[in-house]
């Protein structure tokens, strides 16, 4: 693990020049090492009917697999633990952090979730951000949840690559100023973000990882006042987590016949899991 942490800091300098190009398209990849073959599939964490069912090549690879690895397996304990961690436990309040005007907008936009006012008032800014993203009534089952359900129906072994405390740490250790800035920005640009989400889903359906990245980068470039805060979240939620996940999926990849489901942007570029796995001797071939 220490070696992986060192690699993260040196990734930009040490990664092969072709890595970004090689991993710019494709959702399903075949990973091979020492004669053992597994598959890594890029998912999208949106509860949208257009992405609720895996494409046929992914379904076929999944049907031949003996284990499933996902980023995180929620259960009653982890849901309660995550909910508690998203709340201030002292005298601090969300309104105090973002002001009365933006707090009123949070209340309005979180109305579909059914959260009571006193609960919203105690949300940390990152907790409000997460809830805003999922404030959709009657949303379909996510692709990740569908895969987990199918795996359990087949009695496959299902593993997670992150624990609940690690997920909490990724958010909780972000500076408060970054949390506040990104929440206020999301409230001010709600319509743009919804349009961006739609464009992202269309790029995902086109298997265009680089297109998803460019959409995100163009949006950030329009608002340089929050660029530094976006960079903090990108490092914590994308790059740092990719290092951990690439390390933890290796035990099952070495056994072979594993199916790994991970957010599509974790596949992209020289800091993604595919490039990191290649550094450890795995060969990646795009299937779909």
Can you offer a commentary on this structure?
This protein is of the alpha/beta class and 288 residues long. The chain has 16 helices and 6 strands. The protein has one domain (2-286). It has helices at residues 2-14, 19-22, 56-63, 76-85, 94-98, 100-109, 117-121, 125-133, 143-153, 164-172, 176-188, 190-205, 209-221, 227-248, 250-255, 273-279, and strands at residues 28-33, 36-43, 67-70, 157-160, 258-263, 283-286. The protein is globular and about 60 Å long. The chain starts with a helix and ends with a strand.
Q: What features would you highlight for this structure?
A:
single chain, 288 residues, alpha/beta, six-stranded mixed sheet, 16 helices, 6 strands, 56% helix, 11% strand
The major β-sheet equals: 6 strands, mixed
Distance between the termini: 31 Å
Shape: globular
- Give the integer mean of the pLDDT values: 91
Order of strands in the sheet with most strands: 4-3-5-2-1-6
Tell me the β content: 5-15%
Main structural class:
alpha/beta
* Unreliable residue runs: 1-21
H/E element string?
HHEEHEHHHHHHEHHHHHHEHE
- Compute the number of strand runs: 6
Number of helices: 16
Any idea what the radius of gyration is? 19 Å
- How many separate structural domains? 1
Percentage of residues in helical conformation: 55-70%
Can you summarize this structure?
This protein has 288 residues and is α/β, with parallel strands linked by helices.
